[in-house]
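We now fix the convention by which a protein and its fold are recorded. The integers have meaning only within a learned vocabulary of local backbone shapes. A complete example follows; check for yourself that the lines match position by position.
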Amino acid sequence: MNPEEEKRATPCSSHANMLHHRVFVRNPHLDVMKDDVLYHFGLGTATHNLPAMFGDVKFVCVGGSPLRMKSFTEYIAAEICMEDPESEYPNICAGMDRYAMYKVGPVLSVSHGMGIPSMAIMLHELIKLLHHAHCEDVTILRIGTSGGLGLEPGTVVVTKKSMDATFLPKFEQVILGKTVERNTDLDQCLAEELLQCSKELDQFETVIGNTMCTLDFYEGQARLDGAFCFYTEKDKQDYLKKAHTAGICNIEMESTVFAAMCKLSGLRAAVVCVTLLDRLKGDQMNVSHEVFQSYQLRPQILVGNYIKKLLKAKAVAATVQQ
């Protein structure tokens, strides 16, 4: 990230400091466009009243699977008691087949697909959507799954730093033939708040640790079970142990671009992923479907309770002020 980007993308240090913070876009070309088409969402500034549809959004939860995000929408609806959890929640992006989007009260749920490119495309359009809708004080949370390093399966990891496959906290992208490096800092106050929320829940182990983001599920994560593999078990173990020594607790495929883009737009962001296995002990999951499903729910439970806690605190504060 260049100095100007760094200066204009200072992350918020606490929830209190988020008061009346708009979502930033860093593109002067948008100012002269008569219509901004959010193509992959099937939305646009000329065809939809985005402030009316999304202006009240305070929390955005993103995850890889459309089904997972629909499930989260049903879960959060019941948690915050705003709508009937038995209701059918329409997919706002139903006219397109790339992403799914659901909304209940101030909570927007969006799928991002798998990997950095899919996440980046979704975030460009999501950030513009929040900007066009004049949203303020937005917190965005990625909920997902990951491979753990030295952790018991089922442990939830709240990311401290997102690192690339060389164990460096950065995101690199080639723009106009040149490599641009961006910072992957995440909001540490938010991470601590999520950890405290997990302690209050006392349902499963949660830790704060570094997350490694790779470009691939197989060779990029040192797996031995892909279609191609030109390294040994020892090579794999040496690499994963180096990652573990660097403070990396889990491995996934989206966190660096997520952290970098959220930082640029001024969004308060966190990554919350459950570990499905300990990669130091193997490459494939050997648990039942029921256990797998219970693990997948853990980030939803933590984030859902966090949102519920903040909305309740906001309601109490509003009552006191009256």
In short: Residues 289-321 form the longest helix (33 residues). The longest strand covers residues 268-278. Confidence is low (pLDDT under 50) at residues 3-18. The radius of gyration is 19 Å.
